[in-house]
Design brief:
The chain is an alpha/beta fold. The protein has a single domain (2-10, 46-210), classed as Putative cyclase (Glucose Oxidase, domain 1). 18% of the residues lie in helices and 29% in strands. It has a seven-stranded mixed β-barrel with strand order 4-10-9-7-5-11-12. The protein has a two-stranded antiparallel ribbon with strand order 2-3. It has a two-stranded parallel sheet with strand order 6-8. Strand 11 and strand 12 form a beta hairpin. Helix 5 packs parallel to helix 6 (159-168). It is globular, with a radius of gyration of 17 Å. It binds zinc ion. Zinc ion binds at residues 47, 51, 53, 175, 201.
Length: 211
C-alpha cells in the first residue's frame, strides 16, 4: 500500500491567491520565554493551500463547507496526467484523455504540479485551468468531485463560469493538490476539510492511497 500526501505544506512560504489574506503562523506563548506551553496563532484565508470550495463561494446560496458530503470527499478516484504542453483543460482534452468510464472522482495533474516541486513562493497567473466547456464536460460525464493542482479550478481572468457550472451541479472542488509525485491511475481518496461553520471554503488534508 502506498500513501501519497497531496496536501500542500501550509506556511508563509506558500503562494496565496492575489488579494487573499497572507498566511501567518506566530508563536504567541513560548516556553523559552517562561510560559507553561508553546501556543501559536494561525491566520489565513480559507482558500489556502489544498482546500475545498463550497457552493457558497460563487453562488451565494448558503451551501457552506461544513455541509459537504463525506461520501463524495472519500472514495475511489482517478488521477489523470495531462502532458506539459496542455495549456487548458477543455472538453476536447477531456474527451481525448484516458479517464476510465466509471470515474466519479477525478484529479488532474498538469504542469502546474511543477510549481510545488520547485517550492516557489510566487503566485502565478498563467496556470493550467478548466475552461467553461471543460466544466460542462465534467457535469455531463457525472463527475462528483474534481481536484486540480493549482489554487483555482478556473482560469485567472475568468473565474466565474467554471466555478458556477461545477458548484451548481454539486460537484465538489478541491484546489491546490500537489500531484507531482503521483502516478496516473486509480486510488482511494481521503479529503477532509476543516469543519468551518458557515464558510465558503476550507483547507483540507488530502491523501491518495494506492495498492
Ligand atoms: Zn477555492
Amino acid at each position: 500500500m502506498s500513501i501519497y500526501d497531496i496536501s500542500l505544506p501550509i506556511s508563509p512560504n506558500l503562494p496565496v491567491w492575489e488579494g487573499d489574506p497572507a498566511i501567518e503562523l506566530e508563536e504567541i506563548l513560548s516556553i523559552d520565554e517562561g510560559a507553561d506551553a508553546n501556543v501559536s496563532r494561525f491566520s489565513a484565508g480559507v482558500h489556502v493551500g489544498t482546500h475545498v470550495d463550497a457552493p457558497h463561494h460563487f453562488l451565494n446560496d448558503g451551501r457552506t463547507v461544513e455541509n459537504l458530503s463525506l461520501d463524495i470527499l472519500t472514495g475511489g478516484a482517478f488521477v489523470l496526467h495531462l502532458a506539459e504542453g496542455v495549456d487548458a483543460v477543455d472538453a476536447a482534452t477531456l474527451t481525448d484523455s484516458a479517464i476510465p468510464e466509471n470515474t466519479s472522482r477525478l484529479l488532474i495533474r498538469t504542469r502546474n504540479s511543477q510549481q510545488w516541486t520547485q517550492k516557489s513562493p510566487k503566485f502565478i497567473r498563467d496556470f493550467v485551468a478548466i475552461t467553461p466547456d471543460g466544466a460542462e464536460w465534467l457535469v455531463e460525464n457525472k463527475i462528483k468531485l474534481i481536484g486540480v493542482d493549482y489554487l483555482s479550478v478556473a482560469e485567472f481572468n475568468n473565474s466565474i463560469p467554471t466555478h458556477q457550472i461545477l458548484l451548481r451541479a454539486g460537484i465538489v472542488v478541491i484546489e491546490g493538490c500537489d500531484l507531482s509525485q503521483v502516478p496516473q491511475g486509480e486510488y482511494a481518496l481521503y479529503c477532509l476539510p476543516l469543519k468551518l461553520v458557515g464558510s465558503d471554503g476550507a483547507p483540507a488534508r488530502a491523501i491518495l492511497v494506492g495498492e
